Amino acid sequence: MLASLHSANTSQAPVAHFSSEHSCLSIDHFSLAYAGKEALRELTLSVPRHRVTAFIGPSGCGKSTLLRAINRLHDLNESVTHSGQITLEGQDIHDPQMNVTELRRRVGMVFQTPNPFPMSIYENVAFGLRLQQRMPKRKRDDIIEWALTSAALWDEVKDRLHRSAWQLSGGQQQRLVIARTLAVQPDVLLLDEPASALDPISTLKIEELIRNLKSELTLILVTHNMQQAARVSDYTAFLHQGELVEYGPTDQVFTNPRLQRTENYITGRIT
Ligand SMILES: Nc1ncnc2c1ncn2[C@@H]1O[C@H](COP(=O)(O)OP(=O)(O)OP(=O)(O)O)[C@@H](O)[C@H]1O
User: Fold this and answer.
1) What was the ipTM of the complex prediction?
2) Are 65 and 47 contacting, i.e. CB atoms less than 8 angstroms apart?
3) pLDDT digits 0-9 by tens, 204-222
4) CATH topology for 18-265?
5) pLDDT at 10
6) H or E element: which one contains 68?
7) Which part of the chain is the ABC transporter domain (predicted)?
8) Residue 14, pLDDT score
9) Distance from the CA of 93 to the center of ligand 1, in angstroms?
10) Is 64's C-beta closer than 6 angstroms to any atom of ligand 1?
């Protein structure tokens, strides 16, 4: 899959462009404001399928806002206004035909702090499946084993599936949350600083998991940790003050950025 570079019409940002055949999610001149204050400005980019795309940028540049927009988590916030378009596999996520529950099944979200539900390991992973139509227990058990295996947790929990999820370590809880999200078979996984609350060993496990999961789905990773973005992502987008500054193959963005602003951030001159 080759990314060509072109300039977005409005911002002149160097942007990797993927054909619709390779793109899973497309963001087209998307702007978002909280109570009239712009947090994202005219973002245009497409996210390639079965790759890890990292969003980096200083605090407050709009990374989490973008993830929440992709999941329509701002729907109940009346102060939020937006313009432009986000499409998932060609379908406008704000189209009246779009079922928001189905959107959130197709686009899973994992937050910074692990948030297992106060129930057993098994029930956590089964949670989303129970919202779907009735499923035979045998099939549900198979999916739970598959999701826990995909999240690299099965071997550690297979003998205590009915114990409380809260007995797990922080790193295991985060992998459980990822398993819970995978169980409903999303197309996209949004990860908002998924390892920043974890110790170094747990962080490496999450990074390895992210690299392995791209055979299953498309991943978008928000991280402050540039080494982490360089280690796990295939493409990197640099946001600054709500604008997309640069987007391209991770090696290129980190070793040969096209814009001075990107280099300033990567070398620590913008914090
Ligand atoms: N619910 C909200 N209401 C009002 N303003 C908000 C809200 N959430 C975020 N903002 C503002 O939007 C801008 C972007 O915030 P956002 O959290 O998306 O940035 P970020 O890049 O994820 O930051 P960080 O790396 O610190 O998490 C900031 O100016 C922030 O203050």
Assistant:
1) 0.98
2) no
3) 999 999 999 999 999 999 9
4) Rossmann fold (3.40.50)
5) 42
6) helix 63-70
7) 25-266
8) 65
9) 21
10) yes
